[in-house]
Specification:
Elements: E1 5-7, H1 13-19, E2 24-27, E3 30-37, H2 49-66, E4 74-82, H3 84-99, E5 106-112, E6 120-127
Parallel strand pairs: 4-5
Antiparallel strand pairs: 1-2, 2-3, 3-6, 4-6
């Protein structure tokens, strides 16, 4: 079996190792990114919803950059929102700053009741630039 080709963003490897999962795996020309939340460096949530969403996208972008990608390379996104009826508009107004112009990635939105103290999570699949698949 080939070992997993893990991508770690700078400065957060200990957080992922402590929680026993990989932030992203390169495979067959794609980057599969674990769900990203608005966690601070120590793993705690940003208390403000908009700040939490911004931090989730910044954490996501750090992983994409570590693999040589940007959000423009994202082909599929899944978002998880606690109480989407109450939070969707506020979250989506912030997400627009990171989403970029059309054509947009595919999207699945899921309402959940609990995200370990967070209100928003995003996971993506991105196309790796030519030569970036190890």
């Amino acid at each position: 079996m080939t070992p997993r080709d893990v991508v770690f963003p700078a400065g957060r490897q200990a957080l992922y190792e402590r929680n026993r999962y990989s932030p992203a795996i390169r495979s067959n020309g794609f980057l599969f990114v674990s769900g990203q939340v608005g966690s601070r460096e120590d793993g705690s949530p940003e208390p403000d919803l908009e700040a939490q969403v911004r931090r989730a996208f910044e954490n996501l972008n750090a992983i994409l950059a570590a693999a040589g990608c940007t959000f423009d390379d994202v082909v599929d996104a899944t978002v998880f929102i606690v109480d989407p009826e109450a939070h969707f508009e506020r979250i989506w107004s912030v997400a627009a700053d990171y989403w970029g112009p059309a054509p947009h990635p595919t999207l699945t939105g899921i309402g959940v009741t609990w995200l370990y103290g967070f209100q928003f999570e995003i996971k993506v699949i991105a196309r790796l630039p030519q030569g970036a698949d190890h």
